[in-house]
Design brief:
By secondary structure, the chain is α/β, with parallel strands linked by helices. Helix content is 25%, strand content 30%. The chain has helices at residues 61-71, 84-92, 106-125; strands at residues 4-10, 17-20, 33-36, 38-45, 74-78, 98-101, 130-139, 142-147. The chain is elongated, with a radius of gyration of 17 Å.
């Protein structure tokens, strides 16, 4: 079966500068630290649209806005972080823009982004396009990828 793929990248210069605290780490990653993150989305479809596109990149403006809300000058904490009350106090004092997610780390963040963007993509394309993977890059040396392969035998994939 033929599959068409397209990618959309929000590079390090996009301004997605956020910080994390990986409280479960035994290393310095347990400390609050930050990155200018990059996000790469990979879309897939067996059928191009009437313009011969996998996906209209212009339709991703809400995704870009959501990424900025999630990652632009924010702090991400895990819902089970034992120091969460202190971090919430910092947020209440206006010192951090806190986002609480089920888990922290590039892998968990890639899944979180995938869960949201795949739903948006499915609604926008009526199931014709799937979000195949999300890559979160801390910098040139470190990244994590979350991937879900679609079963294109589904009738929802037909134009």
């Amino acid at each position: 079966m033929e599959i068409y793929r397209s990618t959309k990248s929000y590079d390090h210069n996009e301004g997605l500068s956020c910080c994390f605290r990986q409280w479960r780490a035994d290393s310095h990653c347990r400390l609050v630290h930050g990155y200018a993150l990059a996000v790469k989305l990979v879309f897939a479809t067996p059928h191009l649209d009437h313009r011969n596109w996998c996906l209209d990149f212009g339709s991703l403006k809400p995704v870009k806005a959501w990424l900025h809300d999630l990652l632009d000058h924010t702090m991400i904490a895990a819902a089970d972080d034992p120091e969460l009350p202190r971090l919430q106090d910092l947020a209440a004092a206006g010192l951090v823009d806190l986002r609480i997610l089920p888990a922290v780390g590039c892998e968990a963040l890639a899944k979180h982004v995938h869960d949201h963007v795949s739903q948006v993509t499915a609604e926008m394309t009526k199931g014709r396009v799937s979000l195949e993977s999300v890559e979160i890059r801390e910098h040139a040396g470190n990244s994590a990828i979350y991937e879900v392969r679609t079963n294109w035998n589904s009738t929802a994939a037909l134009p």
